[in-house]
Amino acid sequence: MPEALLEVNHLKKYFPIQKGLLNRTVGHVKAVDGISLSIQKGETFGLVGESGSGKSTVGKTIIRLTEKTEGEVKFKGVDLYGLSPQELRKIRPSMQLIFQDPYSSLNPRVRVGDAIGEALLDHGLAPKEEIRNLVLEVLKSCGLSSYHFDRFPHEFSGGQRQRIGIARALILNPDLIIADEPVSALDVSIQAQIINLFRKLQDTRGLTYLFISHDLSVVEHLCSRIGVMYLGSMMETASRDELFKNPLHPYTKALLSAVPIPIPKLKRERIVLKGDIPNPADPPAGCKFHTRCPFAVGRCKEEVPVFRDAGGGHFVACHLA
Ligand code: SF4
């Protein structure tokens, strides 16, 4: 098997809870609690879960926007947490993060073309006189034009702003893009256009994506493999087709039951989960999902289910699966 572009092993990210005048640590929010995944070059891995499942923290911890508590992250075989700040800065252009709201990261007074070119200058990746042409090229590949170079961020629609966000990542010629809810704030028709753009860029540039979303219907169209997270832990991973045809974890089944089917005669039985996702500072014992699982048995409250191979690369953490 070829070496994975990205390999994450037992990654943990705990945020301390501090209280009192002396800011004493009284507990931890276990945002990411032992996640493992690997992504091959050219693959799109979808990471799915409700808000509060820790999926965004996984993305940020992978590229060291926030530091890990434990675990290992290897990119092209290099241990990212073993790098010095200088070495990390050198490798950074190869791993780019795209946010849900690119507008918030754009300076309203800086023309879009300059904002996209800024990163090239910062990293010393191109001489100043070449930057305009490089930006025009990347704008074109993202469905924008030279007209947009001198416009300001407020002059763009939501979909165009996300194209700018993608262009800002692409200009650095990355190998891996971590896209965190990149289409969640967009209308459905615009979502489709942006997903098509992601796909086209993958075909033309051989990109690898970690695509983070709360919406299984969005990842279905783009991802070859999917991981389902709940309360900081991975509940199930499988190829997209296998996960949609044969979901094994009750949480995945519940998420899938909310995904509309294009054939009106076929209806999935809707599984409505009771209550909200528990507090990650005080997760339930045993299976973390037992407080909301319609199939929970006594053992689920005490014993943590092992994340095991159910066959053919389909992994699941459930006593009953
Ligand atoms: Fe539900 Fe038990 Fe499986 Fe957890 S281990 S998902 S509580 S059946």
UniProtKB/TrEMBL annotation:
GO terms for biological process: peptide transport; transmembrane transport. Signal peptide: none annotated. Residues 6-256 form the ABC transporter domain. It comes from the Bacteria. PROSITE patterns: ABC_TRANSPORTER_1, ABC_TRANSPORTER_2. This is ATP-binding cassette domain-containing protein. The keyword rRNA-binding does not apply. NCBIfam families: oligo_HPY. The keyword Nucleotide-binding applies. SMART domains: AAA. GO terms for molecular function: ATP binding; ATP hydrolysis activity. Belongs to the ABC transporter superfamily. Keywords: ATP-binding, Nucleotide-binding, Transport. SUPFAM superfamilies: P-loop containing nucleoside triphosphate hydrolases.
